Amino acid sequence: MIAVRFSSSFEEGDPVPLAGEIGAGPGESPTAKPGVGFTGLRTLRYDRPGRVRLFDVDVPAGEHTELSYVVFPERGTAVALDVELDDGSTLPDDLDPKALYPRQWNLVRRPLPPGRTVRAITLSGGEDAGWLDDVRIADRPPRRRDAVDRVRTTRGTHSGKDFSRGNTFPATAVPHGFNFWTPVTDASSTTWLYEYHRRNDETNRPRLEGFALSHQPSPWMGDRHTFHLVPAGDLAFGHEHETDRPYHYGVRFDSGLTVDLAPADHAAVVRFAFPGEAKVAFACKRGGVRLDPKRGVVTGYTWVRSRLSAGARRMFVYGTFDRPGRRVRKGLAFDTSGVQLRLATSLISLKQARRNLDAEIPAGTTFEQVRDNARQAWQDLLGRIELDGATEDQLTTFYSGLYRLFLYPNSGHEETPRGRRHASPVIRHWWPSTRRRTGAKVADGPMSVNNGFWDTYRTCWPAYALLTPRKCGELIEGFVQQYREGGWISRWSSPGYADLMTGTSSDVAFADAYLKGVRNFDVQAAYDAALKNATVAPPRKSVGRKGLHESIFLGFTPLSTHEGLSWALEACVNDFGIANLAAALGRTDEARYFRQRALHYVHHFDHRIGFFQGRHRDGRWRWSPEAYDPARWGFDYTETDGWNTAFSVPHDGQGLANLYGGRAALESKLDSLFATPETGRNPGSYGGIIHEMTEARDVRLGQYGHSNQPSHHIPWMYAYADAAAKGQAVVREVLTRCYSGSEIGQGYPGDEDNGEMSAWYVFAALGLYPLAVGSPGYVLGAPLFRRATIALENGRHVTITATGSGPYVRGLRVDGEPHERAWLSHDTLVAGATLEFELSGEPSSWGAPPPSLTEGDAPPRPLTDLTGHSSHPALSDDTSRTQVVLGRTASVEFTVDGSPRAVELYTLTSGTHGSPTAWVLEGSADGHAWQVLDERSGEAFRWPRQTRPFALAEPAAFPRYRLRVTGSSGRRLSLAQWELLAGER
């Protein structure tokens, strides 16, 4: 219970300040309503105030008394409220100006010393100007609550398209559920559904336009299958009258109306309490609604879908009120003030929606039962991690992060009389939908949807593998089902094959899970899906790897592929995961091949400038050294610039260091990144300022853009530079400064994409980070809390303790033994490890670098193809789009230009007709006598234009090579490429 001792929001009747000018509020903001205060219509304007006395007060401070306020800095953030105490002293700790965001409202809390009396509230601002609101002195005692009750689902909603503090919405759901249910401030939108402040009404009160069924993965992807419930009456409210929990959204409106919503998997229950007669309307922008007043039944369908909602067909809705009503326009009215609605959905049929309702919320089920079931499901997950020594705000941040992590991905299947089935979002099916059934292909098995793997592979999937390995396997199996049905796994599942972002990152995510012991999925099908991504040029833009038809053979992705450099670097990470999975599955040739391909980042490294950049197909660099600007956004880089891409080799930090000239050079490069300011004014190919630029600037960590996922690994790269302490300092600053504002709808420094921004916080706060995804280990950092206990699914516990204070690790003991390495294996952790960190305020030399793909001090030198002349030139033209059609058997010769190099691997790429099944590879010194180097039979190419690698038993160097194909799968043999891969001289 909060007891307010002093309060002023500068409204009529509030205490009047002694300085400053009361006005209408900021003229503009990317996240807030302009021309008003944070609450109310008035706020205090300050302009270079120096140090001024704002209020004279006489307030004794108790054990939990604090000063709080919200502030909107317009220029400069060195502004703070302080107090004068009864002995003339002020508060002991200065505030970090970087803790405030410019051009946004910021909540600040400062504890007051107990037993003292506050005589005045003062304002200091130096050369700054801005606005101040909601000044309070109040008692705020801590409350003991379960983990789930720490969650605020409104975190991240104080956002907009021009600046993201999360860009989330208050999703009420069960973990990984079929539906979301949410309040909406804009019922016409499929993008920003709920804005914490920007859509306040003319009196600056938040106002809802209804309650929605939602399936939105992010505002940039857009929503689908929306359906709205609109209670009659004035829907203005205050955020203090909201309940924003994962299992319960509730609100009491200014009019006296209350609405409470609790979720099941495919269903929900909504309870309305009106001040007068109950009236509830229904709306669907694209769809149909039918009402049966006598039975109190509502049925309908929705086919609302955003442009990126690939594969979405109709969703069906079936609901029943707890009493009959009468029709009133598009809704029902009832002869009572309180009604309850049970509502369920299906992607298969209206009949299945009713089945889902009866199964999950049968008639007679109370609101409390549904709410408590959902609460228990969340508590069972979130309660697996117990924290000691965390502040109230840290607890909210941590457990809200876990909520976001376990909100996605979502199920797309239903339990039917024929077992688990789903309306496939990836099978092309042209049957029309009706108002009762879908036209989509209904298939057996599970289906997982709603995931952008380019974001989530970095932290989300490693978190699932560690914290919920059983569910991790189930989710993977649902995505593997996409491969079985549509031939590919989505890059961005929304719910099907959305053409967005770079990399086929499910490859490394699922490899990582398997290597960490997740076994309850079809690993062979998952491997096949990854293999197809990595070896077959896709037939359309929405699947597979762009530029693959050339990049396999060139060793780099040319400028003809948009943002080709980012595609290339993501491919290296994914190939690293495939290589390790191939080795685990006994696929030795493929393991060797993909391990080489994981090193192809070196072909994009321009030694002249010390950065990665794009190349023309003929090998020329995009920019000359004089024209290159690493702070320029776009062109070769996805949502970032050359600075942040300079470290995009998390799987081979030693190799990257060697490119720069050694570990000290890598350390220096990282230092330069954090010392070089981001201006947010160098849009490059974007042609204008995008929100990621502004957010990266306002993080104020140099060029490091923690506001976006491509940068999230960068501080941890200091471990590869043997300078782990520098990374620990950055991580601690991010943890303590960039995730603030939970109570006013903020909480994130950028887009919270499917749980990834949250999972970063969770890992970093625990002192762990999955830096080299695709290998079973973690880089270690300084834990944020005094103690954390993780209950693992295998019945064991991980205990992490921290003694001392500060952001630096001075020492570590693992299971009682000294541990000098800045990394730890997954096996050690899940065996039930005890990690005892000793922290310090001063940096130390603790932490030997983690293992890396490259060993030694030399720059990586992956195998490259031999140059020369083929008897069939199309087979060495570095593209799989051409092919040679021959008879069932054929002989192809290749003559090397210059001195021969030792061939270790070779690849064959099938064409569109018959593929080779048996062949002999031979070498010759003179073109007359031939030596057998490799012989194969019983081989198969799974897909047209697939590139397959084959390793020689021993490396061989000859000036001439011959491939004799002795068997084919068709009447005619077709080949697209033949590549001989050799080491450097």
From TrEMBL:
Span list, region Disordered: 1-36, 143-168, 840-881
Biased composition (Polar residues): 1-10
GO CC, alphabetical: cytosol
Any GO MF annotation of the entry: peptide-N4-(N-acetyl-beta-glucosaminyl)asparagine amidase activity
Residue ranges of every copy of the Glycosyl hydrolase family domain listed in the record: 352-840
InterPro entries: 6-hairpin_glycosidase_sf, GH-type_carb-bd, GH92_a_mannosidase_put, GH92_N, Glyco_hydro_92, PNGase
Annotated NCBIfam families: aman2_put
Protein name, UniProt field: Alpha-1 2-mannosidase
Gene source species: Amycolatopsis bartoniae
